[in-house]
């Protein structure tokens, strides 16, 4: 059975990189995801973690408060006791992919995507990976 959760959202605060006692790098960031609409809209706060060499790259420099991102990875739910003694739950993602999909102030042109793998790829304005201006390839075998 596969456990993959993908969503888009807004970085809630700047990403941090910390190291475990064994020296493993962990990039942590919290992302807000809005669900519903109108007066029924809710915001889910999802903690995202990226481990290892991918966490040591330059991605931390781009994951700033207000940045729009696409995240995909394994979803977990944790329970913890709040300061007031009540039980709370938090959603967490062990990320496989973190893509920048827009700028903090959507006013500039020439968007860039930075994947968690550490590679940088250009994307059309608006952050979509689809290039609708590209000519169609008529030699598709199906």
Automatic annotation (TrEMBL):
Stated role: Plays an important role in DNA replication, recombination and repair. Binds to ssDNA and to an array of partner proteins to recruit them to their sites of action during DNA metabolism.
NCBIfam families, per the entry: ssb
Region (Disordered) residue spans: 106-142
GO cellular component, one term: nucleoid
Transferase keyword on record: no
Positions of short motif Important for interaction with partner proteins: 137-142
SUPFAM superfamilies per the UniProt record, alphabetical: Nucleic acid-binding proteins
Keywords linked to the UniProt accession: DNA damage, DNA recombination, DNA repair, DNA replication, DNA-binding
Pfam families listed in its UniProt record: SSB (PF00436)
Assembly description: Homotetramer.
Skewed-composition ranges (Polar residues): 108-128
Top-level lineage group: Bacteria
Keyword Cytoplasm: no
Cross-referenced InterPro entries: NA-bd_OB-fold, Primosome_PriB/ssb, ssDNA-bd
Protein name, UniProt field: Single-stranded DNA-binding protein
One example GO MF annotation: single-stranded DNA binding
BP terms from Gene Ontology: DNA recombination; DNA repair; DNA replication
């Amino acid at each position: 059975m596969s456990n993959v959760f993908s969503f888009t959202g807004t970085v809630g605060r700047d990403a941090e990189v910390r190291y475990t006692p064994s020296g493993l790098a962990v990039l942590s960031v919290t992302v807000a995801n809005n669900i519903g609409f109108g007066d029924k809209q809710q915001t889910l706060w999802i903690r995202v973690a990226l481990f290892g060499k991918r966490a040591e790259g330059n991605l931390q420099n781009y994951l700033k408060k207000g940045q729009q991102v696409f995240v995909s990875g394994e979803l977990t739910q944790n329970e913890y006791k709040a300061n007031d003694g009540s039980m709370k739950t938090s959603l967490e993602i062990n990320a496989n992919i973190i893509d920048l999909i827009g700028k903090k102030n959507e006013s500039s042109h020439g968007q860039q995507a930075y994947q968690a793998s550490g590679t940088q790829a250009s994307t059309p304005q608006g952050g979509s990976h689809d290039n609708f201006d590209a000519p169609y390839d008529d030699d598709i075998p199906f």
